[in-house]
Amino acid sequence: MSRDIEDEIRDEKNPRPLDEDDIALLKTYGLGPYSAPIKKVEKEIKDLAKKINDLCGIKESDTGLAPPSQWDLVSDKQMMQEEQPLQVARCTKIISPNTEDAKYVINVKQIAKFVVGLGDKVSPTDIEEGMRVGVDRNKYQIQIPLPPKIDPSVTMMTVEEKPDVTYNDVGGCKEQIEKMREVCY
């Protein structure tokens, strides 16, 4: 009995290497019955999409703009003329919040303070006291909530992505420093 246990322990310490049949079995172990056909169809779809993109001349651009051949300037100009420009204001107070007839006190710089309502596309939960809002120029209704104003020079100083490099990674040269110490002493 103890002999069998000793043999098992010895086998665990020195496992035999996998042969080609074992490797093939491990590769197919997690695959379902449709894995191979699915992979084949996915590859065909990918190849067809690449071929279509090559024929259409679609390519990614750095600016995110479509190529000039796909621009529709007439409808873009019409849409720009239909859109009314908004003024920036600050919502200073909400009168009777959480009711249907809530009113908002806005301060339009250099003009005046107004008590206004919301536009059609704005939810009352989107507007808070002290936030910047976009108002139309006619009725001064709140059309959209705006993000807080940030100084452009401050945004240039913000870290967009924290690097994962440490001082040990940058420093390096340990071997060279040790060799220099050996030579000097």
Question: How would you describe what is shown here?
Answer:
With 185 residues, the protein is α+β, with helices and mostly antiparallel strands. Among the domains are: 1-58, no CATH class; 84-145, OB fold (Dihydrolipoamide Acetyltransferase, E2P). Helices cover 41% and strands 16% of the residues. It has seven helices and five strands, in the order H-H-H-H-E-E-E-E-E-H-H-H. The protein has helices at residues 2-13, 20-29, 35-56, 73-82, 152-157, 167-171, 174-184, and strands at 86-95, 103-108, 112-116, 132-136, 142-145. The model has no long low-confidence stretch (mean pLDDT 78).
What is the element layout, followed by pairings?
Elements: H1 2-13, H2 20-29, H3 35-56, H4 73-82, E1 86-95, E2 103-108, E3 112-116, E4 132-136, E5 142-145, H5 152-157, H6 167-171, H7 174-184
Antiparallel strand pairs: 1-2, 1-4, 2-3, 4-5
CATH architecture of the domain at 84-145: Beta Barrel
Q: How is the largest sheet built, in terms of strand order?
A: 3-2-1-4-5
Listing every helix as H and every strand as E from the N terminus to the C terminus, the arrangement reads HHHHEEEEEHHH
The structural class is alpha+beta
The CATH class of the domain at 84-145 = Mainly Beta
Alpha-carbon distance between the two ends: 62 Å
The number of helical segments is: 7
Shape: elongated
Please mark out the parts with pLDDT under 50 across 5 or more consecutive residues, or reply none: none
The overall average pLDDT, rounded, is: 78
Proportion of helical residues: 40-55%
Protein name: 26S proteasome regulatory subunit 7-like OB domain-containing protein
GO cellular component, one term: cytoplasm
Main location: cytoplasm
Subcellular location: Cytoplasm
